[in-house]
Amino acid sequence: MVLLNDLTQRLQADDPEEKRIVTGVSWQQYEALIADLGDNSGYRVAYLDGVLEIVSPSRRHERGKTRIGGLLELFFLETDTEYFPTGSTTFRKEDNQAGGEPDESYCIGTEKDFPDLAIEVVVTRGGINRLELYQRLGVREVWFWENESFSPYYLWEETPSQSMQTFGYGKIERSEILPNLDINLLAECLSNSNPLAAAKEFRQRLRSQLDRA
């Protein structure tokens, strides 16, 4: 009989996520790498002040980000919310020495050069600080999905003064850009291992919430 902890460790070993950090990288070298990798790369690349992070996402990572995106698009449809998916587009600002590729990202209301919302699925910790990266890119809201729960942050200070440790972001209970979204409901449905059943449950419970509003 296989213990649950042993099984979890085996699954993680069979589905590794590789991360590499390289320092002393120029902006020109970063852009050359992005060009070489092209649009069909399976890697996620981030850059901040000469530090380059390259991640080869695991299957769990990709499954998580795809399922989050699927339920969010159900929310947009059911609430008639204008949205523009920008996915894992490479966003970068040379003046701020910052570039990154979210797991999922969206512009809300109107299409913009940079997304309003970036979502990061956390499987392995360490590497470039995503809040600092997204603050430099001007992303208003960042969600971290880790251990079956969301940690959402909103950019209250574009030039951080009081919230220096979180680079101007403050942790929030509800989304500021999607105030009608119940993030706890979203997380609860994502905990269902069956994607179809999770989508049906989310849609049904979302409709019930909207009917009561």
From TrEMBL:
A Pfam match: Uma2
InterPro entries referenced in this protein's UniProt entry, alphabetically: Nuclease_put_TT1808, Restrct_endonuc-II-like, Uma2
User: Record's SUPFAM superfamilies?
Assistant: Restriction endonuclease-like
Q: Which residues form the Putative restriction endonuclease domain?
A: 27-181
Does this UniProt record's set of keywords contain Cell membrane?
Answer: no
Going by the UniProt record, its keywords in alphabetical order are: Endonuclease, Hydrolase, Nuclease
**Superkingdom of the organism of origin:** Bacteria
Q: Which GO terms describe its molecular function?
A: endonuclease activity
Name of the protein this chain belongs to? Uma2 family endonuclease
Q: Which organism is it from?
A: Scytonema millei VB511283
